[in-house]
């Protein structure tokens, strides 16, 4: 589990937006409504919930500083 600042990765950002699995699920209309991640993958949902609370994004931090 990561604690602290997340390191941005352009490669991961692009691959997440262009993955074949994402395209198939999105085009087939199989997306669950927002907040239903626990239904589709409970283990991943629990991990992500803890990860988001224990780490922070550098870009959001910079945005708050220069606002």
Task: Describe the protein in words.
The chain has helices spanning 10-17, 20-28, 37-40, 42-54, 58-65; strands at 4-6, 55-57. With 67 residues, it is mostly helical. It has one domain (7-65). The chain has a two-stranded parallel sheet with strand order 1-2. It is extended. It starts with a strand and ends with a helix. The protein has five helices and two strands; from the N terminus they run βααααβα. Helix content is 63%, strand content 9%.
Helix content: 55-70%
What's the number of domains? 1
Widest β-sheet, arrangement of strands: 1-2
Shape, please?
Answer: extended
Contiguous helical run count: 5
Portion in beta strands: 5-15%
Report the count of strand segments.
2
Task: Give the radius of gyration.
Answer: 15 Å
The SSE order reads EHHHHEH
Structural class: mainly alpha
Distance between the termini: 30 Å
Main sheet attributes: strand count, strand direction, barrel closure = 2 strands, parallel
- The poorly predicted ranges are none
Average pLDDT, rounded to a whole number, is: 84
Question: Any chance you could write out the topology, listing elements then pairs?
Answer:
Blueprint: E1 4-6, H1 10-17, H2 20-28, H3 37-40, H4 42-54, E2 55-57, H5 58-65
Parallel strand pairs: 1-2
Briefly, what is this?
The protein is mainly alpha-helical and 67 residues long.
């Amino acid at each position: 589990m990561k604690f602290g600042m997340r390191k941005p990765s352009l490669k991961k950002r692009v691959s997440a937006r262009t993955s074949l699995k994402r395209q198939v699920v999105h085009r087939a209309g199989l997306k669950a409504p927002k907040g239903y991640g626990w239904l589709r993958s409970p283990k991943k949902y629990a991990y992500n919930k803890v990860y988001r609370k224990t780490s922070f994004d550098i870009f959001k931090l910079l945005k708050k500083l220069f606002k």
